[in-house]
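Subject: complex prediction, re-run

Hi both,

The earlier run crashed halfway through, so I resubmitted it with identical inputs.
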Amino acid sequence: MPKQKTIIGVIGGSAIDEKNQALAYEVGKHIALNKAILVCGGLGGVMEAASRGAAENGGHVVGILPSEDKNSANPFITIPIPTGMGIGRNVLVVRTADVLIAFPGSYGTLSEVALALNVGKTVIYMPGSWNISKIGQVSSSLFKEAFDAPQAVGLALNSVIHL
Amino acid sequence: MPKQKTIIGVIGGSAIDEKNQALAYEVGKHIALNKAILVCGGLGGVMEAASRGAAENGGHVVGILPSEDKNSANPFITIPIPTGMGIGRNVLVVRTADVLIAFPGSYGTLSEVALALNVGKTVIYMPGSWNISKIGQVSSSLFKEAFDAPQAVGLALNSVIHL
Amino acid sequence: MPKQKTIIGVIGGSAIDEKNQALAYEVGKHIALNKAILVCGGLGGVMEAASRGAAENGGHVVGILPSEDKNSANPFITIPIPTGMGIGRNVLVVRTADVLIAFPGSYGTLSEVALALNVGKTVIYMPGSWNISKIGQVSSSLFKEAFDAPQAVGLALNSVIHL
Amino acid sequence: MPKQKTIIGVIGGSAIDEKNQALAYEVGKHIALNKAILVCGGLGGVMEAASRGAAENGGHVVGILPSEDKNSANPFITIPIPTGMGIGRNVLVVRTADVLIAFPGSYGTLSEVALALNVGKTVIYMPGSWNISKIGQVSSSLFKEAFDAPQAVGLALNSVIHL
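This time it finished cleanly. Structure:
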């Protein structure tokens, strides 16, 4: 009997430093090794590094693209969803993910963190990502810090088990 | 090297007769046997029969759901996309599919046929589906009739090869 | 006490002949003279002619645009809604309208007719528009023919009264 | 000759204290007195207080609603846009507004602030709203503080002049 796959979202900037690129790759790899599916915005930077980590380890990678064109996806997306909704696709990334792992990024990443918390999804944030607990009252049970890939993916999977 | 999967959309009514249920199952099965991915609206009727045909034959099934709730998916969806966009999700079904196979259905199905032709995608229509070539000028190269599952999936795959 | 305005949608092709241009202008004019608001897709052809008819007669014109850019609106739009959703904005035109008046058009227009009937809204169709009652079972109470502007707007307003 | 109206967005929580309720009313009032149109999410709290301020002073109020139902709008919305997109309508509030004024709110408000800055729109933030400049590098020219209604609306209008 087929069943729904666990889907983990990875969000973060389209331009990142080498350290975060390596970390995003590891996160994608651990997602695939745990037989979960990776969903992301389908473009470069954090998205591409994580997609590569998942795809090179046998995982499926859903890319929810801002444009209508599947060719805009990074080379590691196996299932492109070309929304044609621009930044509005961020809502769909959040809704498709059962839980999200947030890397450093700009306002687009911040919007995804906020949308995820708005709909009651857990956000695991990596060092340097938006730490909104510093500026507002954030439900601690939904907003958790992680420092490496196994911890991030482990916390993510654990949050889904307890959905 | 991973690469993008071919994605075939199956559209049609949420209430169907036994004959179309069997035909939709066969279409889903042939999609899976050809290693393509099935995308549909994720609910019952044509969508569920095709999903079952794909899932029971090892295929992946993307369900682009109107609600925000993954539990609204039929039991054969493996990758649920809970859009929360209601009937607006029809646009995403059309954009995600590389080509569509249309079964009999109501206005929702008609909207998907129209949206697909609007964005230049091929629609293979099964007997009894909306035959809009009877009421307007339809580009013949995009609107093709099929009578059984192997023919429908074959025409669909062939249209993607020539994209 | 302020209250919600009646909103009438006008849909149809972005390229039209002179006769339909004049007719769309008259429809827009009668919408404005009846103190209703016009909503349309905000671009050229039927949309622009109707927008002009409304705007030149003191009406407000909501243009629900496919692009993110308000400058893409025709010159008679007073309230632009730049969705950035491409053809997906058709769903929003249909939802914003209390009732729709359909002119001849291509698949985009057909998708709007189908979406409107799907959500249970009345569609008044002008001569030459998609007459889907010829190819399927259409609820006659929602799909009505009109031949001139006063009749179209009158039928539209009357359908809203009985909502 | 008709022309596009200036549209100012007001965002903030659906539950607010009396002080912010009064302040939001004043902001709505000043928007109307300056002949601009108010756009908001159409529901209660900050949205309703600002809508009331605008509507009671002769202004038009566009409410971009999460549901498909115009009856879900607060009583001061004159032009309801029932998107049926849930929290996804936040993107449309941001795109419709030429500039936004942010009151205190929860994650939904934060998502709108982030989306606005992402698409390059000015956000005027009132005391107690999300001050994201404390946790990230925010382009100072797009993120401005205001302390009362005339200042907020003045800064908003001024930012549009220099678009």
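Chain D has a mean pLDDT of 94.

- K.
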